[in-house]
Amino acid sequence: MHVLFLTHSFPRFAGDAAGSFILRLAVALREEEVDVSVLAPAAAGLPSHDRIEGIEVRRFRYAPARLETLAYEGTMVEQVRAGWRGRAALLGLMGAEVGAVRSARRARATALLHVHWWFPNAIPGILGAGRALPVVTTSHGSDVRLATSARPARRMLDWVVRRSAAYTTVSRWLADGVRELVPEAAPLVAPMPVEAALFSPPTTRPRDRLLFVGRLNAQKGLELLLRALALLPERVSLDVVGEGEERERLVRLAADLALGERVRWHGAQPHPRLPDFYTRSSALVMPSVGEGLGLVAAEAALTGLPVVAFDSGGVRDLVVHGRTGLLVSSVSTEALAAAIGALLERDDQGASLGVAGRAHALATVSPPAVARRYAQIYRGVLARA
Asked: What pLDDT sits at residue 251?
């Protein structure tokens, strides 16, 4: 069975973090006798035809080269809101996706199209697929948030749901969100995989060393964590892995809070480097709200690292309060600091939570488990078709 993926985020090279979970799904599906190829947008320095870990990738042009900046960096919404250049590039992207799907259909017999993120990809994907090619659409989080913020987006989501042979979300929380927007929707919950073989527990861990991994933007909530750190004993430190538009402001905030050398800024890191950070930490803190799933929590759990997160979004599928980590009910600096402090005051600093977290993650988001789930969905769609 050949399945075509359409996405605006996918690794640009081996080890790239952008859309790496989609690559892991494509690779894992081989064991289910599903052959995947990928359509993704062009960007500076990327070949039009490539293979990454054996997965064929074709990248399509959608604008003059200087404007092909919407994909891979997580800044599409900001660029579109900034002005006409971004909006023109978005229209070009969606139009090019229609043509790319049609061309791929003509070039190779394809069983179905799997679209990642309903916006901006599902509408052009469905139009390109036509009536003959079934479409599976997956929401990862940011696209559901978009539909809650604008009525036209809600109408477009309704159309996508009706035209998709199956609609999946990566967490129960996102499935609930889709049902609230489109009451007749019946989304299937199927998470994205984590590269379990890359993450394993260390023999020992340092104490009082926190870790944050994610984009440095408002949604990821690092400001709350910095302010919480200022309330914790001075022996507690924080490693920050990630880049983003708020970095300069957050660095200034850390200085204003007199955190000094307690915070270490590592910038964005290649995905294969992340296990080193997980194994050199006492706990992962996720101060974000409304995560679609929160694969960082799963990666941490696979190394046996306990997770402290707000009781929000899809992270509830990965962190079971009191068993695999701690969920904080109140989104506040004080509540976050109290939960972190309670974890670090344990004799084992949450190591027992980490052991249970690893077992839970293996059963939930390991590549074989996720690939079986999606292969089942594909075969169900084809049987109905």
From this structure: 97
- Report the sign of the C-alpha dihedral through residues 176, 180, 186, 192, in that order: negative
Q: Give the integer Cα–Cα distance in Å for 232 and 346.
A: 15
Average pLDDT along the chain, 385 residues, taken 10 residues at a time = 97 89 96 98 95 97 94 87 91 97 95 97 97 95 85 92 97 94 95 90 95 94 97 97 95 96 95 93 94 89 96 90 94 97 95 94 92 97 93
CB crowding 334-344: b at 16 or more within 10 Å, else e: eebbbbbeebb
Of 129, 80, 84, 135, nearest in space to 105 by CA: 129
Encode burial over 168-199: b for 16+ CB neighbours within 10 A, e otherwise. Answer: bbbbbbbbebbeebbeebebbbbbbbbbbeeb
Domain ranges of the chain: 2-193+366-384, 196-365
As given in the structure block, the two tokens for residue 255 are 């200085």
Q: Which CATH class for the 2-193+366-384 domain?
A: alpha beta
Sequence-distant (6+) residues with CB within 8 A of 308 are 283, 284, 285, 286, 325, 326, 328, 336, 339, 340, 343
CATH of 196-365, picked from 1.20.1560.10, 3.40.1010.20, 3.40.50.1820, 3.40.50.2000, is 3.40.50.2000
Residue 282 corresponds to which tokens in the numbers above?
A: 């006492």
Rg of the Cα atoms in the chain: 21
Q: Would you state the pLDDT for residue 149?
A: 81
Beta-bridged to residue 286, according to DSSP, are: 309
Which of 235, 238, 268 lies closest to 253 in space, CA to CA? 238
Cβ-based burial of 260 (10 A; exposed 0-12, middle 13-18, buried ≥19): exposed
